[in-house]
TrEMBL record:
<dbReference type="Pfam" id="PF01425">
    <property type="entry name" value="Amidase"/>
</dbReference>
<keyword id="KW-0648">Protein biosynthesis</keyword>
<feature type="active site" description="Charge relay system">
    <location>
        <position position="81"/>
    </location>
</feature>
<dbReference type="InterPro" id="IPR004412">
    <property type="entry name" value="GatA"/>
</dbReference>
<dbReference type="GO" id="GO:0030956">
    <property type="term" value="C:glutamyl-tRNA(Gln) amidotransferase complex"/>
</dbReference>
<comment type="subunit">
    <text>Heterotrimer of A, B and C subunits.</text>
</comment>
<comment type="function">
    <text>Allows the formation of correctly charged Gln-tRNA(Gln) through the transamidation of misacylated Glu-tRNA(Gln) in organisms which lack glutaminyl-tRNA synthetase. The reaction takes place in the presence of glutamine and ATP through an activated gamma-phospho-Glu-tRNA(Gln).</text>
</comment>
<dbReference type="GO" id="GO:0050567">
    <property type="term" value="F:glutaminyl-tRNA synthase (glutamine-hydrolyzing) activity"/>
</dbReference>
<dbReference type="GO" id="GO:0016740">
    <property type="term" value="F:transferase activity"/>
</dbReference>
<dbReference type="InterPro" id="IPR036928">
    <property type="entry name" value="AS_sf"/>
</dbReference>
<keyword id="KW-0436">Ligase</keyword>
<dbReference type="InterPro" id="IPR000120">
    <property type="entry name" value="Amidase"/>
</dbReference>
<dbReference type="InterPro" id="IPR023631">
    <property type="entry name" value="Amidase_dom"/>
</dbReference>
<dbReference type="InterPro" id="IPR020556">
    <property type="entry name" value="Amidase_CS"/>
</dbReference>
<feature type="domain" description="Amidase">
    <location>
        <begin position="27"/>
        <end position="471"/>
    </location>
</feature>
<feature type="active site" description="Acyl-ester intermediate">
    <location>
        <position position="180"/>
    </location>
</feature>
<comment type="similarity">
    <text>Belongs to the amidase family. GatA subfamily.</text>
</comment>
Amino acid sequence: MSTDPTRMSAHELGAAIRSGELSSAAVTEAHLDRIAEVDGNVNAFLHVDRDAAMEQARAVDTRLAAGEDLGPLAGVPIAHKDLFTTTDMPTTAASRILEGWQPPYDATVSQRLRDAGLVILGKTNMDEFAMGSSTENSAYGVSRNPWDLSRVPGGSSGGSSAAVSAFEAPLATGTDTGGSIRQPAAVCGLVGAKPTYGGSSRYGVIAFASSLDTPGPFGRTVLDTALLHEAFSGHDPRDSTSIDAPVPPVVDAATRADVAGMRIGVVTELDGEGYQPGVMQRFRESVALLESLGATVVNVSCPSFETALSAYYLIAPSECSSNLARFDAMRYGLRVADDGDHGTEDVMSLTRAEGFGPEVKRRIMLGTYALSSGYYDAYYGSAQQVRTLIKRDFEAAFGDVDVLVSPTTPTTAFPLGERAEDPMAMYLADLCTIPTNLAGNAALSVPCGLAPEDGLPVGLQVMAPALADDRTYRVGAAVEAALGQNNGGALLTRDAVAV
C-alpha cells in the first residue's frame, strides 16, 4: 500500500481513517495540495474551497474520536460535478448563464455524500449543461487528460475524470446522459458506472434530458466505485422517477471477481468501421480473458443499436429544449440589457444569446425543431419508436446472456480541438454508450489496457439489465483482478503520465 494518501484507493483511505492510522484532515490536505500543484495544467476544478473542506475533514475526525461508527468512505475526499446543487458552493453547470449562482438547496446526491462523511473538495469542470463528449464546451476553459495534456479527458464529466486520474481526488461524481461517465472513465483509465435509470436521484441535478440523466460514480478501482455507488444511491421520494427498490448489492459483487458460469454476450453491432485497431485489440483480449476465467462467451445481435445515435440526438435535444426554457433571465442567473430600454422579450433573447454556448444553442434549436408542429411525429415520435426497439433488443439479449460487453468508446482520447468544428465526429464518441441510456439499463466501464498505437487507456463496457447493476461490478472486478489493476494507486502504467 502506498504511503502517499493521494495514491491510495478510497477503500484504503477509509479504512486508515477509521483505524486512526491517518486523519481525514491529513488526507484532505494532501489532496488539496495536489490540486494546488497540478490543476493549473489540468483545469479539473471550477471551484475549490480549502477552508470548508478542511472543516468537513476535522468534523469527521472529531466524530470518529468520539467513537461514532461511520461508513466506509467517511473522511475520504471527493470531487463533485458542477451539475449537482450545493448550498455552500456555486453551481454553474459550466455555463455563463449561471455564473456565480449559489443554490438554496442541496441535491440529494450532495446531501448523501455529506451524510456518508465524504469530504467535498470542490466542483468539477464539465461540458456546459452536460452537452458534449470532451469538456471543450465549458464556458470556463477546457479540462485536459492527465495522461496527455494535449488530449481531452472525455465528457461531459471530464473535470471529474481528470481529477481522479490526476490523483487530485480518489473519487468523483458524474452524470451519464449518453455516456458522460463511462466515456471519460475509459479515456482516463478509470472505473465509471451508469446506474440503472431511477436508481440514483436526479433531485437537484440541473436537468439536460430528464428521461436519460443518471448520476453515477468514478473511482480508480471497481470496489471504490461500488462503495460510492452504494453511498449515494437508493430511493428518493423527491424524484418522481426514482425506483422504490433496494440498491443492488454492488459492493458485494465488487469483491467477488468471479465470472465462472456467467454468459457474456458480445454485441456484434458495436464493432467495425471507425473503431481504433488498438481499442479492438484490447477489447478482444478482454473477451478472451473472461472466457479463460470460466465465462461462456457468445455473439449477440442487437440490430436497433445502429440507429441509437440518431434517436438519441433527437430525444436528448428535445428534452434539453424544454428543460433549458427555465433560464429566461427573469428569476435567477445572468441578465443582460436590464437597463430599462429593453422589453422583457429582448432581455430574455439577449441573455440567452450571451449566456449559452454554441453547443447548447445547437441542441436547443435541434430540439425545438423536432418538437415543432408538423415535425413532432416525423422526428421526436419516430425516435421514441426506435427507443422502444432498442429496449426490445436488450430484453431479447438478456433472455440469453447475463451481461453484454463492448468497447466503451471507439477510440482513445482524441486531441483537443480535433473534433471541435465537427459535431458529428464528436457525437460518435458516444456510439457504444448511448443504447444503455435509451433503455435505462445499468452499465460500467473498466480499464482493460493501453492501446498499442498511442499508449492511452482503453475501456471495456459491461451492460446489464435494469436493477442488475451488481453484474457489471462482478465482471469489472474479474477483469481488474486478472489484469492486476486493483492497487488503487495507478490502474495502468503511469510512467509517462503528464502530471
